[in-house]
Amino acid sequence: MELTSLIRQRRRPIFIIVVTLVLALVLEAGFYLGQHAAFTSMGTKPKTYKAMQAELMAVQSTLRLRDEELAIQRTRHEVDRQALELVRKELAGQREAITGLEEGLAFYRSLISPGEAAPGLSLRGLELMAGEQPGQYFYRIVVLQEARTYEQLVGSLSVVISGVKGGAAVEYPLAELSADFKGGGSTLDFRYFQSVQGSLELPEGFAPGSVRVEARTRKPREFVIRQEYPWQLAERFTHVGK
Description:
alpha+beta; Immunoglobulin-like; five-stranded antiparallel β-sheet; 3 helices
């Protein structure tokens, strides 16, 4: 009995090992048969499937590389676009500077060579620009001396804005609309030219139509010039020294 029990105890591990091996073979065979059945249902072979899988991985790798190259190209394009925009802005600034210098040069030439005009006063014109706030505007009036020999002129400037409010014609002196024109703002005291400029605020409901300008000197002699300008806005002031 003891010998028989001993033999049984020794056979048990061997039996377990054998059973484990058999189960492993069954599982492997089942996996193979299942894989074979799957390939058969798809109408392909394992080798073909593996080749297709390898090709798919290669295509995916190529696509990743193309995506990276495309991202690099987009970055370069954006950098080039920004650089081109900077160049355009710089060129626009240079053109504006050149235009300003040409305007200033033409203005000073008109002072040096007044032509055949009789001695006296001249108005270069009225310039108006819209401000940032509703009803706010910037103005500039340049008064010149027309002469062969320039003397210091002293006088005053009068500006009246005409328009319509509430269906009726209305006029406002610039001194009532602009703090820059009050006091010494309307005083003329120059030898070659004087630029009078500042900001004004129009009354609510007032529609401006024209601006009447009168420049008058009293020393060393009397000169008077009057001019009426339409209310017309510009994008910027021309380049003229103060």
